[in-house]
Specification:
heterodimer, A: about 120 residues, mainly beta, seven-stranded mixed sheet, four-stranded antiparallel sheet, 11 strands, about 0% helix, B: about 120 residues, about 50% strand, globular
Chain lengths: ~120, ~120
């Protein structure tokens, strides 16, 4: 089966610019997560979707970050405006069920560099 | 708040030898899951092994096994017969079994080097 797809793989922008990341989950996976992984750290959850509804966005900096999952399939994560500290790898992960012991399948990530 | 601690930033093992990666966690929950994920250089993160907290038996997956000590809140990963392909970042992760909104909390990772 095809894995989680993410694009672009790399992005370099200047601070205060906008950027968007795209994630296409494994077919049929209802739960989708966006993580931020800063160099040298573990992934930190930004937002969790169940189908097209937000389950947890408590750690999403809502003044600059936004995310949507239209029709419960693809998802986009946007940063506007970007700050230097947003430089990180943004990971998308999906799960077939509702979490628990279910395996999270990760995409390859988008490496963002903010200059 | 739950926290996951990996106290070994880097570890090294010779090919065919055994290595143990440490992980401790802090939680007030009694029902939860623990995971080890592997992240090879420039490749995506994959699940290595998982453990349900209510199961006393330690999980094993081929050359990978865990030592789960619930009272000590310790969850170490043992890699036997290490191979060059095991070189990667390894992340310990925790998830409480509290329903749909439960999220994974990751440690800071251990970089494993495998030498000839």
């Amino acid at each position: 089966e095809a894995g989680v797809a993410q694009s672009p793989r790399y992005k370099i922008i200047e601070k205060r610019q906008s950027v968007a990341f795209w994630c296409n989950p494994i077919s049929g996976h209802a739960t989708l997560y966006w993580y931020q992984q800063i160099l040298g750290q573990g992934p930190k959850l930004l937002i969790q979707f169940q189908n097209n509804g937000v389950v947890d966005d408590s750690q999403l900096p809502k003044d600059r970050f936004s995310a949507e999952r239209l029709k419960g399939v693809d998802s986009t994560l946007k940063i506007q405006p970007a700050k230097l500290e947003d430089s990180a790898v943004y990971l998308c992960a999906t799960v077939e069920g509702r979490g628990g012991l279910d395996t999270q399948y990760f995409g390859p990530g988008t490496r963002l560099t903010v200059l | 708040a739950q926290t996951v601690t990996q106290s070994q930033p880097e570890m090294s093992v010779q090919e065919a030898e055994t290595v143990t990666l440490s992980c401790t966690y802090d939680t007030s929950e009694s029902d939860y899951y623990l995971f080890w994920y592997k992240q090879p250089p420039s490749r995506q993160m994959i699940l290595v092994i998982r453990q349900e907290a209510y199961k006393q038996q330690n999980a094993t997956e081929n050359r990978f096994s865990v030592n789960f000590q619930k009272a000590a809140k310790s969850f170490s990963l043992k890699i036997s017969d290490s191979q060059l392909g095991d070189a990667a970042m390894y992340f310990c992760a925790y998830r409480p079994n509290t329903g749909t909104a439960s999220k994974l909390t990751f440690g800071t990772g251990t970089r494993l080097q495998v030498t000839l």
